[in-house]
Write a structure and sequence with these properties.
Radius of gyration: 28 Å
Mean pLDDT: 91
Low-confidence stretches: none
Helix content: over 70%
Structural class: mainly alpha
Order of helices and strands: HHHH
Number of domains: 1
Number of strands: 0
Largest sheet: none
Amino acid sequence: MNNIFTRRFFIWTSILLLAGLIALGAEYFVLKGNFDDIQKRANTVTLNNNILIFTRMFVDKVIKSNGEVDFDTRLKLENSIRNINDEKILAEWKDFIDSKTEVEAQNNVRDLLSILMARLSM
C-alpha cells in the first residue's frame, strides 16, 4: 500500500512539475516577444528622434540662414546625420554637400528632406 502511495505521489508530482515547466516556457516566449517588440519600438523612437534633431538643426541653421554656414555648424550637422546611421540619408547628405550650383543644392535639399520624412516611422 505504501509503495502504491509513493508511486502515485511521484506521478502526480511529476505531472505538476511538467505542467509548471510548460507554463513557464510559454510565459518565457510571450515575454520574449514583448521584449522584442519593445526593443523594436525603442529603436524606432531613437531613429525618429535622431532624424528630427538633424532636420530641426538643418532647417534652423541652413535653410533659414542668410549667409554661409560656419564650420562648427557643418560639423554638428555632419555628426547629427551620422547618428541617424542610414546609408541612403548619408548618401543624400553627401549629394547636397557636393552640390556645385544653387539649383543643384535646392534639388538635393528637396531629396534629402524627402527621404528624411520617409524614414520617420510611427
